[in-house]
Amino acid sequence: MLTNLMLGFGNFLYFPEDKSEYIPAAISMSVFVLMAVAAFYFIKRVSKKEEQKTKQFEEQISKMNKQNKG
């Protein structure tokens, strides 16, 4: 069973003799990694803005509660 699995993956893996075939793959991988990093920072920035809005809203509610009780 293990040997059949190893032989099956032998057709899947491809290591070209001409190393210039790696260049397009490296470029596309770099593009996708940069897009993932940009998406991460974008989500992080939006999250911080939402956190600040939530804190302001909580402070506003707590002030209203204090005014209603007092």
Summary of the model, kept short:
The protein is mostly helical. The protein has helices spanning 2-12, 22-69. 84% of the residues lie in helices and 0% in strands.
Major β-sheet profile: none
Instruction: Classify the helix fraction into a percent range.
Output: over 70%
In the predicted model, the low-confidence regions spanning at least 5 consecutive residues are none
Calculate Rg over CA atoms.
27 Å
What's the SSE pattern? HH
Mean pLDDT value: 88
Helix segment count?
A: 2
Distance between the termini: 77 Å
- Percent strand: under 5%
Q: Which overall shape is indicated by the principal axes computed on the Cα atoms?
A: rod-shaped
- The count of β-strands is 0
Given the helix and strand composition, which structural class is it?
mainly alpha
Give an overview in words.
- By secondary structure, this protein is mostly helical.
- 84% of the residues lie in helices and 0% in strands.
Key phrases:
mainly alpha; 70 residues; 84% helix
Q: Layout of helices and strands, plus pairs?
A:
Blueprint: H1 2-12, H2 22-69
